[in-house]
Amino acid sequence: MDFLVTLDDRPTLLVEVTASTPSAIPAAVHHFQAQRGARHALVAAFDLPFVERDCFDLRQPTVVPAATLLSQLGWAGTEERGASVPGREIRPGQPEPAQPPARFRSAHPR
Questions:
Q1: Contact 84, 91 (CB under 8 A)
Q2: Facing residues of 14 across strands?
Q3: Scanning 18, 38, 79, 82, which has its CA 20 to 30 A from the CA of 91?
Q4: pTM of this prediction?
Q5: Is the residue at 70 inside a domain?
Q6: 43 Cβ partners below 8 Å, 6+ apart?
Q7: 46 and 66 in contact (C-beta within 8 Å)?
Q8: Residue 38: which domain range?
Q9: Residue 93 falls within a domain, yes or no?
């Protein structure tokens, strides 16, 4: 796994990054999702074109376009906290997040 993203110190997102689309989801993705209990486990493939799809609706390990995933990372998990997400209905009294919540941390800080 390349990245583990946590929310309130709990594993939320696992990401395996690939240059090209794999023929199958790597076994390690399934293994680490089960082991860590992350809600989302995604394989981000750079060779796939952007699609209009919410990566965070997916609960099973899935291959997604890297561009699609990267476009959504700033808002990942905010719906669970009652904030709105661009492209979705805005809830009254909830501000748009201007940047990713401070709780999002990479497992591999640079």
A1: yes
A2: 4, 41
A3: 38
A4: 0.67
A5: yes
A6: 15, 16, 17, 18, 22, 25, 26, 29, 61, 62, 63, 64
A7: yes
A8: 3-81
A9: no
41 sits in which H/E element: strand 40-45
C-alpha span between 95 and 97 (Å, rounded): 6
What total of structural domains would you count in the chain? 1
In a domain, 97, yes or no: no
Considering only CA atoms, which of 5, 30, 19, 3 is closest in space to residue 66?
19
**Contacts for 33 with CB less than 8 Å, ≥ 6 apart:** 14, 41, 61
Ramachandran bin of 82, using left for φ above 0, alpha for ψ from -120 to 50, beta for the remaining angles: left
Distance (Å, whole) CA 21 – CA 35: 24
